[in-house]
């Protein structure tokens, strides 16, 4: 999406000007991985408008492959506004009927999905529309791109899924959100979930309980804000505390964590190193008002394996 945000901490209603940037869960992760030195591509649709052009141009400038991004001539690019407050930053979304919300299961057959090591998706996409929910089911649950016999790819990629629960998007179909997000999480290879969102969704408050609920997902990472992150895999539990950081704004930090962690996966790092790199990339975003990892995060790049 296009993001319109104040240049300082004053509330949106008091601002004479706004700054235009970009944001969105999956594209944030792609930018984070590109900043860490990996090849990353983003598959989506934007409107035939200046916002869509800005998104594609900026992602490309950050090193993300946007060759598979489609332009929808009938539906607009989604937009959201940030509204700083004394306790938290509120976000106001305008993406109902957007180009991305009109994606459907046909996208799962895009040839670009065959030649990749990790496919990362978010529960936010599933919430945009029924057709988007069907798209995620095709990729995460049915694994359609790798079972249709036409790819020629000997092994399927790792499917990574961030629950990313946004209650407002499921407001009129909350029961669907509870069920859909649980089904997608259980079917993924790597799951990222916040302790607080798991409690809100499934009434599971402890990391150990969350990991048990999401079985048979082979790898679950439970994030608990300023406390730390715990991963569960093959009966092993690893906890990495959150390092101290001066928080300017939390928006986008979860996506940055996912990018750092997945970088560790791509470099075949051990679990503690993956969690540590996730914390480092999240901290880089927490210190700014941007949603994505800045170019300065390249200093945290994992050495080539």
TrEMBL record:
GO molecular function, one term: kinase activity
InterPro entries: Carb_kinase_PfkB-like, PfkB_dom, Ribokinase-like
Keywords: Kinase, Transferase
Domain Carbohydrate kinase PfkB: 13-289
Alphabetized Gene3D superfamilies for the sequence: 3.40.1190.20
CDD domains according to UniProt: KdgK
Highest taxon of source: Bacteria
Similarity field: Belongs to the carbohydrate kinase PfkB family.
Name assigned to this protein: Sugar kinase
